[in-house]
Amino acid sequence: MALSRFPYNRRLLSLYIEGEERSRIANRLRQFFDEQLKRASSSLLWIFAIGAELTRFHTSQLEYTGSNRERVRSLFETAMDNPQVGSSVALWRLYLQFEVVLGSGDSAKRVFYRAINKCPFAKTLWLDAIRYRSLRNLIDEEEMNQVIELVTEKEIRFHIDPIELAA
User: pTM, whole model, 2 decimals?
Assistant: First the structure.
């Protein structure tokens, strides 16, 4: 199999996932990613593994059943605990977006604070607190002021004043 020789090839991974989704044999896809992630961990493999799970359980109303939701969360948590990929901004943003889409406000807020703790250098994570209205609504004025102070303290520059962004 070509993927055993080139496990990080995005095109091959995409084709493999597409083929497996058509065959409706999900466990084979899970086994493949479990084996690959045990051998060598990379952000790309985690993104594809999580994406395959999200695609598998996606319904027309963007709803996930409880066990499916927990399976995806478990994958995210395992990835974030991995020292090689735990500081991946792309994975943190994907995790945050997953929680926001589900409407899990407290979980989204928790993920946001963990993300900026692991990746304090990532401007996009700081902007996500402002960008996602459902997350912004959960952060009270005092917490938003703390976020803005941290942005200023870390000398992260925006093209407009962070206070204007929060308004």
Answer: 0.76
